[in-house]
Specification:
Length: 253
């Protein structure tokens, strides 16, 4: 059954993350916790399906203020497939050197911030632009993606380096380079990609570790509560408090 094959493949990826990436995740979480404790941001960025981990972590029930999503609409797959802002344009744009630098102009940054980048391959120009610009600003760059699988790949940026080579810290998503993982009878291409599950797994392993570090330090977290639980009379106020804190912080971006 192909569904079971896919599930086994995802479990194997998650197991590999657990067995090989825990220490890297702890190190990344410590850097992020420092930024949030200082009232600054962990900026998050990715292209295409690598925007999904960004959209998953905040705003989200169980997420908390401190993560700033930088989602550039033409660099997602979730508008139109063909026609305006279609897949062909997306593939072109993510390889255009200089675009990422223009994206960075739209925000204010501080040396106490952290830049958290998601990229499966680490070779496309926009993500590399973002990393280079962040490093020029003195911001630590943390990259999550299929780092081991990217070794030997040629960057599409004139700096000559992949995103993983530019990072201050890398967490390997442990997803296979081709992403799709299940062979299909009478077809060349596989189905059942696993990189999104790998990204979401590493996101929540990281964010929960950040929360643990900050709670141990006595830092108050502004957590998004579930607002659909009967009998929870304060959830509306807790949500309002979280949004108020976000609004206060985002005024600096």
């Amino acid at each position: 059954m192909l569904a079971k094959q896919w599930l086994d493949n995802v479990r194997n990826v998650m197991d590999n993350i657990e067995h090989t990436q825990i220490e890297n995740i702890k190190s990344a979480a410590s850097i992020m916790a420092d930024s949030i404790e200082k009232g600054r941001w962990v900026h998050t960025f990715g292209c295409g399906h690598a925007t999904l981990p960004i959209e998953e972590m905040y705003p989200r029930i169980g997420g908390f203020v401190g993560f700033h999503p930088m989602v550039e609409l033409p660099l997602t797959f979730f508008t139109n497939i063909v026609g305006q802002m279609g897949v062909d344009q997306f593939i072109f744009l993510e390889r255009v050197e200089g675009y990422g630098k223009e994206i960075m102009k739209g925000y204010n940054f501080d040396r106490e911030d952290t830049m958290w980048l998601f990229s499966h391959t680490g070779v496309n120009a926009v993500n590399i632009d973002i990393a280079l610009d962040a490093k020029e600003k003195g911001i630590k760059v943390i990259v999550y993606g299929s780092a081991a699988e990217a070794r030997g790949k040629t960057t599409k940026h004139t700096c000559g380096k992949t995103l993983f080579e530019l990072a201050d810290l890398v967490v390997d998503s442990c997803a296979p380079s081709e992403d799709a993982s299940v062979p299909l009878k009478n077809h060349i291409d596989k189905i059942g990609p696993v990189s999104t599950m790998a990204f979401i797994t590493t996101v929540w392993m990281t964010v929960t570790t950040v929360a643990e570090i900050l709670a141990d330090r006595g830092v108050k977290l502004y957590i998004h509560p579930s607002h659909n639980i009967p009998g929870d009379s304060t959830s509306k106020q807790r949500l309002a408090d979280a949004l108020k804190e976000y609004k206060k912080r985002v005024a600096t971006v």
